[in-house]
Batch of 2 targets.
Target 1
Amino acid sequence: MRLTCPLCGERDLREFTYRGAALTRPEGETWGDDWHDYIHLRDNPAGENREYWAHSTGCAAVLLVTRDTRTHEVLGSALAKGGGA
Amino acid sequence: MRFSGLRVLKEGLTGNRGWGPHWRDPAPKPAYDIVIIGGGGHGLATAFYLAKEHGLRNVAVLEKGYLGGGNVGRNTTIVRANYFLPGNSEFYSHSLKLWEGLEQELNYNVMHSQRGIINLFHSDGQRDAAARRGNAMINQGDDAELLDRDGVRRLLPYLDYDQGRFPIYGGLYHRRGGTARHDAVAWGFARGASDRGVDLIQNCEVTGIDVEGGQVTGVQTSRGAIRARKVAIVTAGRSGQVAAMAGMRLPIESHILQAFVTEGLKPVLDNVVTFGMGHFYISQSDKGGLVFGGDLDMYPSYAQRGNLPTAEHVMEAGMALMPMIGKARVLRSWGGIMDMTPDGSPIIDRTDIGGLYLDCGWCYGGFKAVPGSGYALAHLLATDRPHDSATGFRLDRFRDGVGLMDEEGTGAQHNTH
């Protein structure tokens, strides 16, 4: 599996760290079902998944990657909002 | 058909013509009291204990492929009870006790071998942690011995004790730990369940779960609709997809865990050895292959195969620990789909839907749990109360934060356990 960093180009998987499913962080600061949902529950699809990856040994940018979990095919990658180096 | 030494002798002298199929191959009936989705180790064990311990025989196990074709056939066969936290500790202790009587109970050779497990440590701090864990195991009623460096060296003289990064200080020795023959465990439970009247239905994929007024009423399958008063989802690796049929989202992310086996060698490794700091563990199968693995690939996957960086990392760790394995040639590798939960511990519980039960989230520790999980889920299905050994495996602990069992203290991200 190789990932494409928008800043550095296509790179080896070893340079990247998976940072979790791409979810929207709740607005509130008190514990509730929205936080339970965000931290614990997952759609966990067998198929197209949207996830964050950090280019940790490269430029440190955080990427939003779309990937097929059945085949490891990478369908797209872009800088995550606010994830630039 | 019972196995015995006399029977083996007789069959051997008469051309082995007397052996029959180990289980029946029935067509699905229109309705059952209990339907278990998933014919793996946990599902088959649940069916066995439902019939044996609770006399419930109007039970079906639905398997989309063949019995034991999932993770119970794709693991590294370690059996142990060396957990630390209350909740896990009593469960795995109970499961190990069931393992110790399993072959007699099933009249089936599951090749359970209590060859001992050694968890290595590499610093004073880790030694303290190992001693603490060992004391917890002893307090639970299990066994643990703290070995110093020379104690480990007497058992495992070929390790590299002075490697620069992780010199070996000693190990926590769990003598009752060991391995078992993974397929035989599934087959033994299948035979025991089938003999007691449970219908094991293969090539029967569940495509829908019927819920009416908050109560489960049955399942839709590739072989027609089946009504049921109770339905248990026992499909670790695919829990999310099956639970979604009932409109549920689970606290599970599926990750890939790779394992490797070398060509067959003469006996060289008597125990199971874990090198946690290097992300490596190893044992030798009875066929002679060195069976080893490491950590997750760390990204979600259903591919049942991993990528090379993790394979490379595991091989490097193996070489660092026991350089002699560099002479062995790797025959094959594979991957299993792991139900990773936010605290690294499993779930055996009811759901918000009446009559629908969950047994999932086994992370990469499901094999050793097979008897204990089947026993506990059967108890829950039969009595609607959790078994004493499994009261900690609540689904709602993530919502309310009570009784989380994060053995490694690595936080709520699913892949860190």
Target 2
Amino acid sequence: MANQMELKDALVELIRRASTHLPPDQMAALRRAADSEPKESMAQQTFEMMIANAEAAATSSTPTCQDTGTLLFYVDYGPEFRQRELREAIEAAAREATRRSYLRPNAVDSRSGKNSGDNTGIGAPYIHFEEEEKPGLRVRLMLKGGGSENVGRQYTVPDSEIGAGRDLDGVRKCIIDAVFKAQGYGCAPGIIGVGIGGDRMSSFLASKESLFRKVDDTNPDPELAKLEEQLTAECNTLGIGPMGFGGSTSVLGVKLNFRHRVPASFFVSISYMCWANRKATLLYRNGTAEFEQ
Amino acid sequence: MAKKIHLPAGEDAIRSLHCGDIVEISGVMVTGRDNVHKYLIENDDEMAHRLLKDTFIYHCGPVVKQNDKGEWSFVAAGPTTSIREEPYQGKVFERYGLRAAIGKGGMGPKTLAACEQLGAVYLHAIGGLAVLLARSVKRVLDVHWLEEFGTPEAMWVIEVEDFPAIVTMDSHGKSLHAEILEKSRAQYEMLLKK
């Protein structure tokens, strides 16, 4: 459904949707997970509570999780837009969304420890810009909680400790290691975004970007698709389960993304997305806003 | 069937809890996370002694709302990751007479030892269950250090009713988290060798 809206208002609505509504693919994945656990088990009951909570959040338009996370905006903009104006609109929207309690104030000055109170600050919100030739604007928003971000990792292969070499099997070992070490801390079951190659920075960027994919989609590269499927199955034999209570669903998916790298470096960067996998997209053109999840 | 806990709770009530028990908590407790724990260790705070004796501390940084009369309420209030408080938790239990920490992810051997020695437990609330848990917070009675620490890090004094949680570390030396870790380790080592 398309609506005439000011850009700032459309961005506030984007934030509201991301914070209060889990995407349909994520809800479906939680439902499948609940149904796959034994009846009355702690795992099954935990999944049922997660689903009930997500439904309550959507109905009451309140945040699915109190940690409304780091605001990560990926913006593709046409020639009629200017980066500086887009940044101002996003910052204004973040302030407004915080005032309306769609967001917790989550921007803390790393020197003084002082919270800015409105989700803006140096480098906050984070905005990644890409210029496009065609007119219009696409804004993808991910709310990335701190607990899951803390269990992310970056490996430099070869890594002798886990026996990971410079090939896809080495990548596989890094992912198994990261999921094992994360246990329930990142609010399992997670979706594992992986950046293969690149430099340290672009590698993490690739891992985050892969988390915009649908939970149940298939990688267009057949070799990576096969590895994603294998890794999801292997991680689920670890028995970590929802919140680390034990169970047969420890991850909901593994998403692989790669970058070219310099010959000397081979990074494997892992971003862990919690079960409250909050994302939304705004398509904006000629003052008309459309939302997708 | 959930066991009901009414706060304040003495040592006997806490010692009767075991790993895997589902509990529903009612009464007055406080929130506290990284800044509060650090503060409580670095200071011997008189007000905190009165507030924390025989009650629980909830590792939570809520989304809050304030009405026209200045009264606060919790909008979203799930647990935060507890392991960050591992260096402090046992000492905070001991100094202030707390009976439980509520959070997510579990805690380590220091906290488990303190639980056994002092008669305390670790309770797991489900992470991300923000809306359902906020609904069991009936009233916000007070807030401390809001200006200094900010909304998520302040110490909120709250009255809860039938707040659901699971005992995952008891006062008898048992930790569900340690068990799951050990079980998953064998499988992990097998997968790395493959």
